[in-house]
Design goal:
The chain has a nine-stranded mixed sheet. A six-stranded parallel sheet has the order 5-4-3-6-7-8. A hairpin with a 7-residue loop joins β1 (about 35-45) and β2. The chain has helices at about 10-30, 80-105, 125-130, 170-180, 210-220, 230-240, 245-250, 275-290, 295-300, 325-335, 380-390, 420-425, 520-535; strands at about 35-45, 55-60, 65-70, 105-110, 205, 225-230, 255-260, 290-295, 315-320, 340-345, 365-370, 395-400, 435, 440-445, 465, 470, 480-485, 495-500, 505-510. It is built from 13 helices and 19 strands. The chain is about 30% helix and about 20% strand. It has about 550 residues and is of the alpha/beta class. The protein folds into two domains: about 5-30 and about 55-300, 3-Layer(aba) Sandwich (Rossmann fold); about 315-535, Rossmann fold (3-Layer(aba) Sandwich), CATH 3.40.50.880. The chain is elongated. The model is unreliable at about 5-20 and about 20-30 (pLDDT under 50).
Length: about 550
């Protein structure tokens, strides 16, 4: 089974067209004088010294008239052919964003680095040069910034030492020839900002100088900055007007995370897709540099998604103290799913495992990967889970997921909610208990299911599970049992099965998922195959 089995539906084209229409409508339908109600996304460690993070949002009202939008290096050309295509794809949505921001009173600063010669007679360039000297220049505001103190202890998430070009050899050779035909330097072919971005000669500014831009910010009374443009891991972070310099100068700044792109080559570590590489950089920024927002918060419509980004979105919901899946499942996802999937990690709070900071992001996911044990979330949070499932979206559960939201012989705390029928409703199971931990569990594929796509690449040889055997029989008549487990002297129990829910969604459950199971290739392949199977359409 391959990822090509998952495709965004034909409705995506409709969504793209609708997004462009909304972009146009919102660009004209603005309300002067009202602040933007933004949701600034950031990430905080789940606990001190733990390399896992809660993703959460903080509501803030930003006055457009004291906000600047800096457009970083949206050049008319580039030495990377694919980077050029992505800039062209970004430009229409970005232009609408700039139009809306400008109409609301924001200051727009175009910063196409090394291209000032093209604007030597442009009113917006003259306006930048005419801004009075601020005098209070932040330290090194005219220099590139490679790191701020908050990043020092962090591992940078991608290897960009090769420059990040993701062209094929054939594409790159053809592009070099084309740039030479145009009379451009193939290594630095940019001459100006891409024409698709409008520059208001009466209001905007053009500069690539950290000091000049600081002069503009001070002269305009700017209190907050938004960064859009490319490339996130290089120029957007490092330029003298980039995220790091703004943070170091004490200027509140956000990255507009869907109006950017990364120079990352999937042939370099960590060997993930180009778009997953961008996600990793955005994670790094939200954890160690500054918050992010998405363009819809200003513009309306939907956030931009590149046409070639067809990665399914997997949300991992994890809160159980018994099998350490906060570590094992996270490590599994990073090693086995990160390349081809968009991932969101949602962990139970260390202070209260019944609460899930950032659970709102589940609504955006295509599939839920669940490892939760006997939690009773606040009613509004359990409703998010119920809404996801009632919408017919896929669910993959491991180990304790069949009693995720059900307490045993305990009352539900005030203000909390339980789902006592979660197992039969979502997985078609009937978990009652488990056999002793001292009994060896031998797992076998059901012979009649050997050709099931979930089991593709898994050896038919029996193997020993790392955990006790769950008592889950009987499962629903409509469930397809793929694996059985046996302990000496007792009947076999289903260990892995599929289930088509009454809401039309696909579910998969396995009682595997103990710590030692994650080291087994059979389990690793089983989870990946299950995610892909649940994403298939029955249409």
């Amino acid at each position: 089974m391959h990822l090509t089995c998952f495709r965004r539906s034909s409705g995506t084209l409709v969504a793209v067209v609708a997004n462009l229409l909304l972009t146009t409508l919102f660009a004209g339908a603005v309300v002067a004088g009202e602040p933007w109600q933004l949701r600034l996304r950031h990430q905080d460690p789940v606990a001190e010294g733990v390399p896992r993070y809660h993703r959460s949002e903080q509501a803030e009202a930003w006055d457009p008239e004291t906000t600047a939008v800096i457009v970083c290096d949206m050049w008319d050309s580039h030495h990377c052919f694919r980077a050029v295509g992505r800039v062209q794809e970004l430009a229409p949505r970005m232009d609408a964003f700039l139009i809306t921001a400008r109409q609301r009173g924001a200051t727009i600063i175009h910063a196409p680095s090394s291209c000032m010669e093209a604007y030597q007679d442009h009113p917006s360039r003259d306006r930048a040069l005419a801004a009075p000297s601020a005098g209070d220049f932040p330290d090194q505001i005219d220099q590139w910034c490679y790191q701020i103190p908050a990043e020092e202890a962090a591992e940078y998430p991608i290897d960009q030492s090769d420059g990040g070009e993701d062209d094929t050899a054939e594409e790159h050779a053809a592009w070099v020839a084309e740039l030479e035909r145009q009379g451009r330097n193939p290594r630095a072919p940019w001459l100006k900002q891409i024409d698709r971005l409008s520059i208001d000669a009466d209001r905007d500014y053009i500069s690539d100088s950290g000091k000049e831009i600081w002069n503009i910010l001070r002269d305009r009374g700017i209190e907050r900055v938004m960064l859009v443009g490319v490339h996130t891991n290089m120029c957007v972070l490092g330029r003298p007007f980039g995220l790091r310099r703004m943070v170091a100068a004490g200027m509140p700044v956000v990255l507009v995370r869907d109006l950017t792109d990364t120079m990352y080559n999937p042939q370099a570590w960590p060997y993930v897709s180009h778009f997953s590489g961008t996600d990793l950089i955005i994670d790094h920024i939200e954890r160690h540099v500054c918050p992010t927002i998405s363009s819809d918060q200003v513009l309306g419509g939907a956030p931009l998604r590149f046409a070639d980004d067809d990665r399914p979105h997997v949300a991992l919901l994890i809160s159980e103290p018994e099998y350490d899946t906060a570590r094992t499942l996270t490590d599994y996802a990073r090693e086995n799913l990160q390349r081809d999937f968009r991932l969101s990690y949602i962990y139970g709070s260390e202070d209260d495992g019944n609460r899930f900071p950032g659970l709102e992001s589940l609504a955006e996911a295509d599939v839920l990967l669940l490892s939760v044990r006997r939690r009773t979330p606040p009613a509004e949070q359990l409703k998010i889970v119920r809404d996801f499932i009632d919408a017919g979206k896929p669910v993959v559960g491991i180990r304790t997921a069949n009693h995720a939201f059900h307490l045993r012989n305990q009352p539900v705390p005030d203000g909390a909610a339980a789902w006592s029928t979660f197992d039969p409703d979502v997985f078609g199971g009937s978990y009652s208990n488990h056999y002793g931990n001292d009994l060896e569990t031998v797992v076998r594929i059901v012979p009649e299911q050997a050709d099931h796509p979930i089991l593709e690449g898994i050896s038919a040889e029996p193997f020993v599970s790392g955990g006790s055997l769950y008592r889950v029989a009987p499962v629903a008549d409509s469930a397809e049992v793929l694996m059985l487990g046996t302990v000496a002297g007792h009947p076999s129990e289903p260990v892995a099965w599929t289930y088509r829910r009454s809401d039309g969604g696909r579910s998969f459950y396995t009682s595997l998922g103990a710590i030692d199971d994650f080291a087994r290739p059979e389990f690793q392949q089983l989870l990946r195959g299950a995610i892909l199977w649940t994403l298939e359409s029955d249409d």
